[in-house]
Write a structure and sequence with these properties.
It contains 7 helices and 8 strands. It has 197 residues and is α+β, with helices and mostly antiparallel strands. The protein has 2 domains: 59 residues, no CATH class; 123 residues.
């Protein structure tokens, strides 16, 4: 299915729902004939989103998942048992954050804070931020040593399964990783946690 077809189908599904009910179910305001999606600490109109985010957000708007995180973190393979997506998940979401933050874990925390997140107490450095109103994402880095390279992971609250399936969750993680890296690039080297708001 092409992006255009996927967007059309998702829009059709959304059009069957009352905007007020969607707002209550997803925490996404509807104003001036458009949904204003809270994406980390930004608000972006659905109509202004990239095709990738548009499909992801349309699926979120129609999911009616759990509104309260349970506080239990799970890895992607627990959240999305379709394991053929796992290699892409690590390649497109986890490895970019390891490559960028693996040797500057303090910057991961500063970047996460700049996106509205807070320290998560996992690994050598971790931060949890709400990618979408009811969907927190936790980024983790283990810095490694002379003998071992840095490692990382992206963890989800167990309730993520009520919002997204395997493919959408992998896409969400990838988009979220690049938002975090972009935030990291806006923080001057050497500031680390001291430069976080």
């Amino acid at each position: 299915m092409s992006y255009d077809d996927a967007i059309s189908l998702a829009r059709e599904n959304l059009s069957k729902l009352d905007p007020e009910c969607v707002t209550k179910a997803c925490g996404v305001p509807y104003e001036d004939w458009d949904y204003h999606v809270p994406w980390f600490n930004m608000k972006i109109k659905l109509s202004d989103a990239t095709d990738t985010l548009k499909i992801l957000w349309l699926h979120y708007l129609t999911a009616n998942g759990a509104k309260e995180p349970k506080g239990r973190l799970i890895a992607y393979r627990e959240a999305a048992p379709a394991l053929f997506y796992e290699p892409n998940f690590y390649k497109r979401a986890v490895m970019p954050i390891v490559k960028y933050f693996g040797k500057r874990a303090d910057k991961l925390i500063a970047a996460g804070r700049s996106l509205g997140g807070s320290e998560a107490g996992v690994g050598d450095a971790s931060v949890c931020a709400r990618a979408l109103p009811y969907l927190p994402v936790t980024f983790v880095i283990w810095e490694g040593s002379d003998e071992f390279p840095p490692e990382g992971n992206i963890l989800f609250d167990i309730t993520c399964k009520t919002w997204f399936g395997a493919e959408d969750l992998a896409v969400l993680a990838s988009c979220a990783a690049y938002e975090l890296i972009g935030a990291g690039k806006r923080i001057p080297d050497g500031e680390g946690t001291a430069g976080a708001p």
